[in-house]
Amino acid sequence: VQLQASGGGLVQAGGSLRLSCAASEGAFGTYTIGWFRQRPGEGRAPVASISRSGYDQRYADSVKGRFTISRDNTKKTVDLQMNNLTPEDTAVYSCAASPFGLAQATGTLPYDFWGPGTLVTVSS
């Protein structure tokens, strides 16, 4: 499956952005999809992930209550709604697909397919 993230940009603290991850091919509905971010000088970290059906989600503690992940298997997209953004959310955001179920798809290793990232910059 090939993935492409979009929707990044510059926003003021307290603002919102909606990222979208689109798949161009492959059996999209058979993959757990995750959003990850990489801050300057840091490694890639999980942000949110969603089960194949979309029924279950998992969030990093730092984004709980502010970010919402959702998916539309018909459109082959997974969105990440980000609200109340802070400068600490500044990072390159990427989406990835894992053949494992949500419970097993922890960290970055279970994810086999990665798309190019999109930059999110939050100004103070």
Supply the key terms.
four-stranded antiparallel β-sheet; about 120 residues; about 50% strand; globular; seven-stranded mixed β-sheet; about 0% helix; mainly beta
Explain how this protein is built.
The chain has 124 residues and is mainly β. Helices cover 0% and strands 51% of the residues. It is built from no helices and 11 strands. The chain has strands spanning 2-6, 9-12, 17-25, 32-38, 44-50, 57-59, 67-72, 77-82, 91-98, 113-114, 118-123. The strands form 2 sheets. Strands 2, 4, 5, 6, 9, 10 and 11 form a 7-stranded mixed β-sheet that branches. β7 and β8 form a beta hairpin. The radius of gyration is 13 Å and the shape is globular. The mean pLDDT is 96.
The Rg value, from CA coordinates, equals 13 Å
Number of strands: 11
Query: Biggest sheet: strands, sense, closure?
Result: 7 strands, mixed
Gap between N and C termini: 37 Å
Low-confidence stretches: none
Beta content:
over 45%
Mean pLDDT: 96
Q: Please provide the ordered H/E string of secondary-structure elements.
A: EEEEEEEEEEE
Give the number of helices.
0
Helix content: under 10%
Shape: globular
Structural class, judged by helices and strands? mainly beta
